[in-house]
Design brief:
- By secondary structure, the protein is mostly helical.
- Helix content is 51%, strand content 2%.
- The protein has a two-stranded antiparallel ribbon.
- β1 (165-166) and β2 form a beta hairpin.
- The longest helix has 23 residues, at 120-142.
- It is globular and about 40 Å long.
- The relative contact order is 0.17.
- Residues 1-28 and 159-173 have low confidence and may be disordered.
Length: 173
């Protein structure tokens, strides 16, 4: 299995609307799908980190902002911090890990997304893990019997609509 990473494209054609992660037609942006696939373990985090690192600095900031918003929308709380740090595989002493456990989550997320360039990959890993923890809890509590959240249908969508192998990219099965 080849772990090729597609050439990152975010700015081109990513017409943002008031609804985070959706374009003007209401369709989910490809990067939103990628972030949710990473959080749902449908793509390996190593693939996601390579994709993220291939983005421009400006696009990385957009992704981190969106990711922080998705975490808040999923109901992330400060108590999710330690589990997220473990899941992200970063050290407790790394700046994003220290910040995530300091309280007032929205304020800490703002600090995390504005960390210097050399901290962004760690911040990305942590926010993917935080989304995984918060969204996993939301799924268990509110969506266990099924829901209409488009991002909770990705596994089914991938199995029925999107091939696992496309344009030289291999994703996990």
């Amino acid at each position: 299995m080849t772990n090729c990473v597609p050439k990152p494209v975010l700015s081109e054609g990513a017409a943002y609307s008031d609804r985070a992660g959706h374009d003007s037609q209401g369709d989910v942006h490809e990067h939103t799908v990628i972030l949710n696939e990473l959080a749902q373990d449908l793509r390996p985090v190593s693939w996601g980190v390579a994709w993220f690192e291939g983005l421009t600095a400006e696009d990385q900031l957009v992704v981190l902002r969106n990711l922080a918003n998705y975490c808040i929308q999923a109901g992330a709380v400060v108590e999710d911090g330690p589990e997220s740090v473990l899941l992200a595989g970063i050290r407790l002493t790394h700046t994003p890990a220290v910040l995530i456990t300091r309280g007032r989550l929205a304020g800490q997320l703002a600090k995390i997304i504005n960390l210097p360039q050399n901290e962004r990959a760690k911040a990305f890993r942590l926010l993917i893990a935080l989304l995984a923890v918060a969204d996993g809890r939301r799924r268990e509590r509110y969506c266990v019997g099924g829901c209409s959240h488009e991002w909770h249908q990705l596994r089914t969508r991938r199995e029925t609509e999107r091939p696992l192998h496309h344009e030289g990219v291999t994703t996990p099965e």
